[in-house]
């Protein structure tokens, strides 16, 4: 956690309290707060904190609005580049106003796949094993360090697909909606919703082969 | 039921302002603590 994480979260929470005083907020740094209105905001003040600390331009502010347990609006903003991804449920996904459609890739063997690693060493070892089993079956792997931006990259076809274990709601709420509204399947494994055990985002033609390989590799298992 | 487009407009405005704060703190060199690896966040 950095002072910037805390400062950004406080700024967003304060701004929401002024404009939407009845809503609650779930933030990475301070947890749940606020009233219990119709809307719950889900915030990651800086997704990609290590990149931020190292001055790598791959971090984002991510904010989603959830109504009755469904994310209905989301925005992911990269302050370093100015790029911005937005989506509303049923309204499509956009990068800087341009509609997103995901990758047309249909072969897993030709797919550029993004992923990320946890912070617990034991989990990393397990994730390395999964990667070992996947790397020979895809075009290549990318690990950029921001789940929100990875999901947006998949939405825009800069990655063909993405998977990661260990994501919290603030990591994938906004980016997941962007990916889904770009036409990707966003889900966990074996019919589970996207969550802590696994988030997979892929175009329909890639989802099943990637999903099945991840199941074979027990990607949702381990610590 | 709140309007999704209206919620998005609020979110965009707030996130841009928050992004300015993050970038400014980065430029001013006050993002805080030195990185430790592994750290419990991303």
Automatic annotation (TrEMBL), chain A:
<dbReference type="InterPro" id="IPR020583">
    <property type="entry name" value="Inositol_monoP_metal-BS"/>
</dbReference>
<keyword id="KW-0479">Metal-binding</keyword>
<feature type="binding site">
    <location>
        <position position="46"/>
    </location>
    <ligand>
        <name>Mg(2+)</name>
    </ligand>
</feature>
<feature type="binding site">
    <location>
        <position position="28"/>
    </location>
    <ligand>
        <name>Mg(2+)</name>
    </ligand>
</feature>
<protein>
    <recommendedName>
        <fullName>Inositol-1-monophosphatase</fullName>
        <ecNumber>3.1.3.25</ecNumber>
    </recommendedName>
</protein>
<keyword id="KW-0460">Magnesium</keyword>
<dbReference type="GO" id="GO:0007165">
    <property type="term" value="P:signal transduction"/>
</dbReference>
<feature type="binding site">
    <location>
        <position position="171"/>
    </location>
    <ligand>
        <name>Mg(2+)</name>
    </ligand>
</feature>
<dbReference type="GO" id="GO:0046872">
    <property type="term" value="F:metal ion binding"/>
</dbReference>
<dbReference type="Pfam" id="PF00459">
    <property type="entry name" value="Inositol_P"/>
</dbReference>
<feature type="binding site">
    <location>
        <position position="44"/>
    </location>
    <ligand>
        <name>Mg(2+)</name>
    </ligand>
</feature>
<dbReference type="InterPro" id="IPR000760">
    <property type="entry name" value="Inositol_monophosphatase-like"/>
</dbReference>
<feature type="binding site">
    <location>
        <position position="47"/>
    </location>
    <ligand>
        <name>Mg(2+)</name>
    </ligand>
</feature>
<comment type="similarity">
    <text>Belongs to the inositol monophosphatase superfamily.</text>
</comment>
<dbReference type="GO" id="GO:0008934">
    <property type="term" value="F:inositol monophosphate 1-phosphatase activity"/>
</dbReference>
<keyword id="KW-0378">Hydrolase</keyword>
<dbReference type="InterPro" id="IPR033942">
    <property type="entry name" value="IMPase"/>
</dbReference>
<dbReference type="GO" id="GO:0006020">
    <property type="term" value="P:inositol metabolic process"/>
</dbReference>
């Amino acid at each position: 956690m950095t002072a910037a994480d805390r400062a950004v979260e406080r700024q967003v929470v304060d701004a929401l309290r002024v404009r939407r005083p009845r809503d609650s907020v779930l933030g990475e740094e301070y947890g749940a707060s606020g009233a219990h209105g119709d809307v719950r905001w889900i915030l990651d003040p800086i997704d990609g904190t290590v990149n931020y600390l190292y001055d790598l331009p791959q971090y984002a502010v991510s904010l989603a609005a959830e109504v009755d347990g469904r994310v209905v609006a989301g925005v992911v903003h990269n302050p370093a580049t100015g790029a911005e991804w937005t989506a509303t449920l049923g309204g499509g996904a956009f990068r800087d106003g341009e509609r997103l459609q995901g990758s047309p890739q249909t072969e897993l063997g030709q797919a550029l796949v993004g992923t990320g690693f946890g912070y617990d060493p034991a989990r990393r070892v397990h994730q390395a094993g999964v990667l070992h089993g996947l790397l020979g079956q895809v075009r290549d792997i990318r690990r950029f360090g921001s789940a929100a931006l990875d999901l947006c990259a998949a939405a825009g076809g800069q990655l063909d697909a993405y998977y990661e274990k260990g994501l919290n709601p603030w990591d994938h709420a906004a980016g997941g909606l962007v990916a889904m509204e770009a036409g990707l399947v966003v889900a966990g494994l074996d019919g589970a919703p996207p969550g802590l055990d696994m988030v997979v985002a892929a175009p329909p033609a890639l989802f099943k082969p990637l999903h099945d390989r991840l199941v074979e590799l027990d990607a949702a298992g381990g610590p | 039921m709140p309007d999704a487009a209206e919620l998005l407009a609020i979110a965009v405005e707030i996130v841009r302002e928050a992004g300015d704060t993050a970038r400014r703190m980065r430029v001013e060199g006050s993002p805080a603590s030195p990185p430790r690896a592994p750290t419990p966040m991303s």
